[in-house]
Design goal:
globular; 4 helices; mainly alpha; 112 residues; single chain; two-stranded antiparallel sheet
């Protein structure tokens, strides 16, 4: 008996950031800790959209960077990278979180 991990394609969400040297990230499903953080990001999205609180905005970028850093290319990202290097704004983050939640829910539903 043998297990061939190379034959199994793990699911991922492809994300292309802005910029000439922007990588194509294949973002993987969250760890248990990241899944819990993702629920906190949903609350932050509501706060950020309703106000200009810089602490909420910074936390939102941190969540996104943590999630996007979990990629097959093993490219670490920081909140500063997203804001400055890849010109990501709050609307982009809203779009990313919506797509990521759909991706994760699709995986969860396919297991049931």
């Amino acid at each position: 008996m043998a297990i061939d991990f190379s034959a199994y394609n793990k699911p991922c969400l492809s994300v292309r950031l802005r910029g000439e040297s922007a990588p194509l990230l294949r973002v993987m499903p969250p760890t248990v800790d990241l899944a819990e953080a993702l629920s906190g990001a949903g609350e932050l999205l509501g706060k950020v959209m309703g106000s200009a609180d810089p602490e909420c905005r910074a936390a939102l970028y941190d969540y996104a960077a943590q999630i996007m850093s979990r990629n097959r290319e093993m490219i670490p990202l920081t909140a500063e990278d997203l804001r400055d290097k890849y010109d990501t704004d709050v609307e982009d983050l809203v779009y990313f979180f919506a797509a990521y939640v759909d991706f994760v829910e699709g995986l969860r539903n396919s297991k049931n």
